[in-house]
Amino acid sequence: GDSEVSDDHNRWRYSGKLGGEELQLARLTGMTAKLAMSRANATGRDFNAVMAETELAVSVQLARILAGSIDPVLEGLTKVVMVEEDEEIVCGVCQEEIDHDGDEARAMACRHKFHAYCIVKW
């Protein structure tokens, strides 16, 4: 039968069946948690803090891997690499500075720039 799952922010019903994408997400979530636990144990740091960092790192890597194949609209964006001579540029999605140490970014025709992984996620 269905079981109800709840936490501080979410309530949903679980039918007991996972589709292909849901199964892959469940596997990824499990592997991410296992990696975070290993890192937290090795460093003596708080698991929740390490988990947040690990989830972000995994998301960034997935976005980089998928960046070229997700949406044809993204193919219309110009690839740019930030260099020291560039003025301070803020990502239009996350509002954080795009680093000048070779961060790969994307630029639109209007000249707005984004971290490559942020525009994919957005």
Question: Please, could you describe this protein's structure?
Answer:
This is Putative RING-H2 finger protein ATL34-like. Keywords: Acyltransferase, Transferase. It is an enzyme of class 2 (transferase). The chain is an alpha+beta fold. The chain has 2 domains: 1-66; 71-122, Zinc/RING finger domain, C3HC4 (zinc finger) (Herpes Virus-1, 2-Layer Sandwich), CATH 3.30.40. It contains 4 helices and 5 strands. The protein has helices spanning 20-43, 47-66, 72-75, 116-121; strands at residues 3-6, 11-14, 78-81, 104-107, 113-115. The strands form 2 sheets. It has a 3-stranded antiparallel β-sheet. The protein has a two-stranded antiparallel ribbon with strand order 1-2. A hairpin with a 4-residue loop joins strand 1 and strand 2 (11-14). The longest helix has 24 residues, at 20-43. The protein is flat and about 45 Å long. The two termini are 36 Å apart. The model is unreliable at 1-9 (pLDDT under 50).
Task: List strands and helices in order, with pairings.
Elements: E1 3-6, E2 11-14, H1 20-43, H2 47-66, H3 72-75, E3 78-81, E4 104-107, E5 113-115, H4 116-121
Antiparallel strand pairs: 1-2, 3-4, 4-5
Helix pairs in contact: 1-2
What strand order characterises the main sheet? 3-4-5
Unreliable runs, pLDDT <50, ≥5 residues? Answer: 1-9
- Globally, the shape reads flat
Structural class call reads: alpha+beta
Major sheet characteristics? 3 strands, antiparallel
Q: How many helix segments?
A: 4
Quaternary assembly = single chain
- Separation of the first and last Cα atoms: 36 Å
What share of the residues does DSSP label as strand, in percent? 15-25%
Gyration radius (Cα, Å) is 18 Å
| Strand elements, count | 5
**Helix content range:** 40-55%
Overall mean pLDDT: 74
SSE arrangement, N to C: EEHHHEEEH
Number of domains: 2
